[in-house]
Amino acid sequence: MSVPEGKRGESKLEIFIKAKQLATYTITICCNENVFLPKYQNAITNDIMQMSKNIFIWCWSANNVRVIDKNTYKERTDLQRQAHRECNNMLALIQIAGSVFHLRNKRLKYWGSLILEVRNMISKWHDNDKQRYKEYGA
């Protein structure tokens, strides 16, 4: 028997699905010459694309750290923090891009909501890890 959609919990893989969605959406937009002129690639869009890829990679890497002691716990949480911090930096850069390229508010809201969703999922994941790995000084 299946669980009704409203009563389902968040999948552990959801963070990776959302982070990948953020990266692919970001790359698609930043490579669209109708949105961002190619001459500005080095000015801002390359940085935004790199940030979106970093978020995904750091989440992926953190998940692949097998926590067995304080050092591996610290490694995992450091990667989570980097991903979280990069979400904040990306939010700042898309605000600049929005002004420079006169992006529609609808696009900025959607893009920003993707980033915020990923950032919030990283925070929840980090908080869950704190509980899970208390014995390592969380």
Give a structural overview:
The chain has 138 residues and is mainly alpha-helical. The protein has a single domain (12-136), classed as Up-down Bundle (de novo design (two linked rop proteins)), CATH 1.20.1440. The protein is 72% helix and 0% strand. The chain is built from 4 helices and no strands. The protein has helices at 14-30, 41-63, 70-100, 105-132. Helix 1 (14-30) runs antiparallel to helix 2 (41-63), helix 1 packs antiparallel against helix 4 and helix 2 (41-63) packs antiparallel against helix 3. The chain is elongated. The model has no long low-confidence stretch (mean pLDDT 90).
Overall mean pLDDT stands at: 90
What is the CATH first-level class name? Mainly Alpha
Q: Overall 3D geometry? A: elongated
Oligomer: single chain
List segments where confidence is low: pLDDT < 50 over at least 5 consecutive residues. none
Strand composition percent: under 5%
Order of helices and strands: HHHH
What is the total number of structural domains?
1
Throw out a few tags for this protein.
single chain; 72% helix; 0% strand; 138 residues; mainly alpha; 4 helices; de novo design (two linked rop proteins)
Strand and helix map with partners:
Blueprint lengths: L13 H17 L10 H23 L6 H31 L4 H28 L6
Short description:
With 138 residues, this protein is an all-alpha fold. Helices cover 72% and strands 0% of the residues.
